[in-house]
Amino acid sequence: MKRVATMAFVVLACVSCGTAEPVASTAPEPMTPAPAPETPAPGSTTTAPSTPTPTPPPAFSAKVSDVTRDRLPYSWRPGCPVHYRDLRLVTLSYWGFDNKPHTGELVVRKTVTDDIVTVFKKLYGWRWPIYQMKLVDAYKADDFASIDANNTSAFNCRRATGSSSWSNHAYGEAIDINPLQNPYVTASGSTAHDNAKKYTERPMKGKGVINPGDKVVKAFAQVGWEWGGYWSGAKDYQHFSKGGG
Ligand SMILES: [Zn+2]
């Protein structure tokens, strides 16, 4: 009797085991898809170390603010064609020659800040390199010194090169980009900057060089800014201005 009872218990136990099994096997089934997504995750985490190395750079940022008189100690003075209250300081991201993101400053007329932000957002997205971007006041508004330092800048209350009339820079509607790689070249093919002599030909390859019809020229053209590289006679490869000139 005892033996029978034991066997019965065993049978019952097995039955309960047997019934439990399908339940257990049904239960893990919905569980299986759940861990499944987790499995690729650790897998992708394993491959991740190679991905994070080129960490995505910070997103492009641009801030437009009023420019105070003390920011323009040399580049603005009474009698300039645009009052400094009608200029704006644009603080924006640019991609450097060192292949790293940087923050630069430009002063432009308040009416063209959208143009500038639109173009420089594209340049940053393309990782198109800019050597340096400081207000020309860092060079006491000396255009020659700023160019010699390969500085990208916009506003400067000065006369046009070789002219008695105001430059478009004096209106805050012009910008010079990588002036070393993109020199002002006279009709006879010379440049006033010794360090830029190897960059007087177009088209030419090189970091930060602007060429006819390239994406930089097109990006400016799309917001109505013309390139000085298209001038007849002297060419100003660094120069873009609203409406040309
Ligand atoms: Zn210029």
How would you characterize the overall build of this protein?
With 245 residues, the protein is of the alpha+beta class. The chain has helices at 2-26, 28-31, 35-38, 40-47, 113-125, 143-148, 215-222; strands at 62-66, 87-96, 101-109, 129-130, 174-176, 184-185, 225-227, 235-236, 239-242. The radius of gyration is 32 Å and the shape is globular. The N and C termini lie far apart (113 Å). Bound molecules: zinc ion. Zinc ion binds at residues 169, 174, 176, 236, 239.
Q: pLDDT average, as an integer?
A: 85
The portion of residues assigned to helices is: 25-40%
The count of helical stretches stands at 7
Query: DSSP strand (E) fraction?
Result: 15-25%
Give the ligands present. Answer: zinc ion
Question: What overall geometry do the principal axes of the alpha carbons give?
Answer: globular
Order of helices and strands: HHHHEEEHEHEEHEEE
For the largest beta-sheet, the strand count, sense and barrel status come to:
4 strands, mixed
Over the alpha carbons, how many angstroms does the gyration radius reach? Answer: 32 Å
Low-confidence stretches: 1-48
Terminal CA distance reads 113 Å
Find the structural class using helix and strand composition. Answer: alpha+beta
Count of individual beta strands: 9
Q: What's the topology here?
A:
Layout: H1 2-26, H2 28-31, H3 35-38, H4 40-47, E1 62-66, E2 87-96, E3 101-109, H5 113-125, E4 129-130, H6 143-148, E5 174-176, E6 184-185, H7 215-222, E7 225-227, E8 235-236, E9 239-242
Parallel strand pairs: 2-4
Antiparallel strand pairs: 1-2, 2-3, 5-9, 6-8, 7-9
